[in-house]
Amino acid sequence: MNTRRKALKTISAIPFIGALIGPSIVTAKVAEEAVMKPLARDFFKELGLRTFINAAGTYTSMTGSLMHKEVTEAISYGATEYVNLDELHDKVGERIAQLLECEYATVSSGAFGAMTIGLAGVMCGMDEKKVAQLPNTEGLKDEVIVQKGHSIGYTHALINTGAKIVEVTTAKELEKAINKKTAMLWFLNANTEKGEIKWEEFVALGKKHDVPTFVDCAADVPPVENLFKFTKMGFDLVCFSGGKGIRGPQSAGLLLGRRKYIEAARLHTPPRGTTIARGMKVNKEEVLGMLVALELYLARDHKKEWALWESQIQLISDSASSVNGVETEIHVPPHANHVPSLKIRWDESIVKISKPDFRKQLVNGHPSIETVGSEKEVGITTWMMEPGQERIVAQRVRELLANA
Ligand SMILES: *Cc1c(COP(=O)(O)O)cnc(C)c1O
Predict the structure, then answer these.
(1) Which neighbouring-strand residues pair with 145?
(2) Are 271 and 57 in contact (CB under 8 A)?
(3) What pLDDT digit, counting tens, does each position of 116-134 carry?
(4) Which stretches of 100-198 are DSSP H helices?
(5) pTM of this structure
(6) Among 109, 216, 240, which residue has the most ligand 1 atoms within 8 Å of its CB, making it the best to mutate?
(7) Nearest atom within ligand 1 for CA of residue 109
(8) CB 353 within 8 A of CB 404
(9) Beta carbon of 154 within 6 Å of any ligand 1 atom
(10) Average of per-residue pLDDT across 8-37
(11) What are 328's strand-pairing partners?
(12) Residues 6+ apart with CB under 8 A from 260
């Protein structure tokens, strides 16, 4: 029994305290504070690091997202017992597949890791000789076809296997590019609008030529429906980041889809050692954290959460636009980071500060606030904030603009 449960049991066993404090929920809260507070060390402070309010979004450089208590409890639980790694992945894979109504699933080392092992699985199947030979692709299908507008840095996850990227623009070009070396077709959901070929046609082209299709949906929850949509649509493999909208461990992710490819993908991962994905280990702590984060995410009241984000963005927008010379725009990106978002712009002849300098002042202030932006505008989202922080951001933004 861990210390907290022990304390809870002790406290609830004393009728006097129970009666004094009242409902059990209050008891639990008091007990938790009593047990957890003295243990808490301010690690970031000890290391001389500043923490900040995240008004930017889910960025790797900003350590992604914050995990709910249930998730960190699952992680702590995982650290207390041994279990067979493959058996754990088997069970959790089945459980996630059931939750997301797809054939199979595995917890990966982020969406990026999911892409590497997914493609490796497609290339090598269950042939252990082939698994051992990567990244040497001799004798293997090793071309991945990608639309030019989708061909950005994330394709590095694919070439990690030793495969090559073949860029095309039209459906006709894609069909012409398919040959006996074609391993897979890869789609970047965030750039859907930057490619001529959309989802259904892309899937149909794969099926027509018997080539598996993969969609990178790393930043595509919300909406929650996306966790189901693309496997049902017929993509053979789909990946999501664990530590973005799902708020699981930032170095975990999900690979969903066809069982035969995911089982093959697993052959590249630990405990097996002489493979390209030996360094993409996902141990029990993150496997459990990912599972629990997903369960929590599915159970969340998504409408209520959306309404909260909208009101938070509105508050910051109103606060910023109350300053003379400032204008704001609320928008929702159609794909990836699909959340209420704010753009703030101003006439620098009236509000005399550049956008980068303004953002720097927010970072250097108290508390420190991180945003995104360019020379032309400042970008803010609230979905990675703790409730209440939007008020601090609204106030700081107005203050800095009004005083510029
Ligand atoms: C974040 C992101 C990735 C990488 O995901 P990780 O979970 O950090 O590995 C890949 N593709 C896209 C489109 C992303 O936004």
Answers:
(1) 166, 185
(2) no
(3) 999 999 999 999 999 999 9
(4) 110-124, 128-133, 156-159, 171-177
(5) 0.90
(6) 216
(7) 9
(8) yes
(9) yes
(10) 39
(11) 344
(12) 125
